[in-house]
Amino acid sequence: MGTFALVLAVILFILGMVGTVLPVLPGVLLIYSGMGLYGLLTGFAGLDTMFFILQSMAVVLVFSLDYLAVAAGTRRFGGSRYAAWGAALGTLLGLLLFGPFGLIIGPFLGAVFAEVILGKEPTQAVRIGFGTLLGLLGGTVLKLGIQGLMIAWFFLSIY
């Protein structure tokens, strides 16, 4: 049962890491679910309450990074909160209209469009769009790092 549980957990970990880059999958939730499933199938061997409390805090941190990284990139390049909202909407529309490529072009165009509507010069709006995109990419790298640490801690706990 332990090997089966571990294989299922690893599959969910892989899907979770992929889901961080492709938001069609709920990345960190799949990783956390893999840990919980492993625990249920093995009688929580090596995984105590404190492990799950701290992993839950990491999940909240990963979710917070989605907003904070985009906001930081937007603000750093002189954008408003509307640019961050435009980037979020642009991410959704970009994914629907352009598939995976929309994850890059959508937030950029959403932030630019929001800033142009607010009356900023197009060159400044494009600069803010790049800042938003940098924040998004930086946040993704941070999320991948935190999730990697979550997975490493899981393996250290069960072995």
Description:
With 159 residues, the protein is mainly alpha-helical. It has one domain. Helices cover 85% and strands 0% of the residues. The chain is built from six helices and no strands. Helix 3 runs antiparallel to helix 6. The two termini are 16 Å apart. The model has no long low-confidence stretch (mean pLDDT 92).
Helix content: over 70%
The general outline is elongated
Query: Runs with pLDDT <50, length 5+?
Result: none
- Average of the residue pLDDT scores: 92
Protein structure class = mainly alpha
- Roughly how many Å is the radius of gyration? 18 Å
Number of domains: 1
Q: Main beta sheet, described?
A: none
**Straight-line distance between termini:** 16 Å
- By DSSP (H or I, 4+ residues per run), the number of helices equals 6
Please trace the helix and strand order, writing H or E for each element. Answer: HHHHHH
Strand content: under 5%
Number of strand elements: 0
Quaternary organization: single chain
Topology:
Elements: H1 2-21, H2 27-42, H3 49-76, H4 81-98, H5 102-117, H6 122-158
Give structural attributes:
single chain; 159 residues; 6 helices; 85% helix; elongated
Give a short summary of the structure.
It is built from six helices and no strands.
